[in-house]
Amino acid sequence: MTTAFASVDDVCRALADAGYLASDAIATTTFLADRLGKPLLVEGPAGVGKTELAKAVARATGARLIRLQCYEGVDEARALYEWNHAKQLLRITAERDGDGHWDALRHDIFTDEFLLARPLLEAVRSEDPVVLLVDELDKADVEIEGLLLEILSDFQVTVPELGTITAAHRPFVVLTSNATRELSEALRRRCLFLHIDYPSPALEQRIVAQHVPGLEATLVESVVRLVGRLRELRLRKAPSVSETVDWARTLVALGSTDLTADVLRDNLGVLLKHQDDIERAAKALDL
Amino acid sequence: MTSLEPRLVGLAGALRRHGVANGTSDVVDAAAVMTALGLEDRERLREGVAAALLRRTGQRQVYDDLFDLWFPAALGSRTGVDDDVPPPADAAEARSRAAQLREELARALADHDEAALESLAARVVAELGRLPNEATTGGWSSAQALDILAPQTAIAAALARLRDAADGIPGGSGNGSGGSEGSGAGSGGAPSGQRFADRFTRDELRAAVAAFRRRVEVETRRRNAEARGAERISRYAVRPPAEQTPFLLAGAVEVEELRRTIAPLAKKLASRMAARRRRAARGEIDIRKTLRRSMSTGGVPMRPAHKQRSPHRPDLVLLCDMSSSVAGFSRFTILLMQAMAGQFRRVRIFGFVNVVDELTDVVLSAPPGADLTEAFRDTARMTRWHNNSDYGSALLDFTDHHLDSVGPRTSVLILGDARTNNTHPHPDALRDIAARAKSVDWLNPESPRQWGVGDSVAPLYADIVDMHECANAAQLRQFVMRLPV
To answer: Rounded to 5 degrees, what are φ and ψ at A98?
Structure first.
């Protein structure tokens, strides 16, 4: 099995080239997931870059990204594969006009031609290296987890009519979860676990500077310190990295050269999404 | 690698004893991680082994503590730290040493000098932390060192330093103050010469001091582990994760951690209760699914498939003992109330000591994260004649006045220790509630061994409704997991 990264530093560099500044923890775990060939289970608050990590790995390794977005009620037919029954019925009716050997036909309609590959099967069958992103797994039902177990441990899929399909390349699998539901131990056991938290101030400054190049360094520092302070307040939804970047963009758009109480008071809505959070923050920051 | 295997196994064992489940396959993975990463970078090794051994977020704190014990950065005293300092001869000497260290601490805090803070922590333990006689947990005490040092007093000095630095270099601050003067004229309110972000300096310093305290604690554990063995220290000196802390004993810090643990659990509890009736065997036919199933029977729809019903959000009634005997537990109760209130379509919350009072409005109108302990301290409306809890009359009062809040779609959750101070328990009232509700569950902070001992009537109530021990967040998690789907 081939590995995409030579060392942890190599991961850092490759991800940075792909536009993703990774902390040491993220880089180390990504390296290990690649080296040990294990799926990566990523948890953490919303907006810290869980999904972005998978995209960045795909960009960095030149692999194709296949994404399975989970939601309540997602089932086998949407996640794994489905028989194209409309086409199969057409085929059956087309045969009926001829003399029709049923045996031949029966084998005929369960072939690749009538199989609709969904993300999981697509990832396993792919000829090129792929990154498989299973997003927000906690939103899906427990049954989907059972379905994933075979794929995650052996990277193979069993279609009763066709047999077992094994992956040519071991896909780099990233599962993300917001912990609205407890994932099963069986699934957790098969994965490397990574908790992404809010980045350290230094890293966050680099992230902001990268995404918003037009902002002065001193202002970037102020923005990151402000957000750090807000995260310490007990808010309904603490601002995450994406909100920090949005806030920095706001400052550029306003042409501000310094962070002042006025600018902050008028644009707190960019950082905080709930009215009572805004009130609470305004009070705590003495605006 | 051979000499590291026992260490790794020891770490995994210590984690298990602290309630962090891991299996042999995880340890094998961790060993593979160590081979892949090598031992050059300790922090990367820490992250890598964590990825293999941990499975959920709340386990990180206890893991970090144990990792420091089983994979210490170094043995003995550190370079640059004079270890042969004798313990201070008298209180005056200890004070003068502390004053000197405090000054250096202020400087390191002002400069954000991580390396200096690290070596300072080592010096604080070496110079102030040695115990006069060795205790079971070793010869060093972080509590003693931090007591003498009082690092929080360095905040003011660090602030003064930062202010001097800003005033002292006119060239450096010219850029920033020029900008703020320009906008200051517009706003009129901003103090001149001081950037807005500097308002956070004090809070940031406070956080840095808290981090410094942790460094001292880590260093102390390291020194003690060396003297006493990692095995022994990991048993005594590592705080169990927030999950295992009993609600009845939780202090302010633990409550803050609990809040973070309980919020997602309440969400899960809500979705579990909603999931109880999702898989329907009848209802609307899903054409697409039925056709697909029919393919294996040659196009004849033998097994119809039904549309999945959208999950139904049940009603919830919370009935909570708010008396002072379960004060620690009621703090947890309040956390759970607040978390559940956001999850259910219709939630009604009742508190009682010996009569029932509806608290729904108080909880729902409070901002999230607000501390409601004070609001509920005044239990006047939940008491009559005396201040002791009386489950019998409270249940009777509930059936008399609030029984209409319980319907066939309602789940009832009762929280309390069922200690009724030798009054009549009135089990019939509970039976009435159970007969009307969809389900009734009782969470009791006491262990089953205590049920029925003294004035507890828990066994009597447990015969009528499902009673579960719920002394810490781990047991709450178990309760949530056990709910039938």
So the answer is: -80, -165
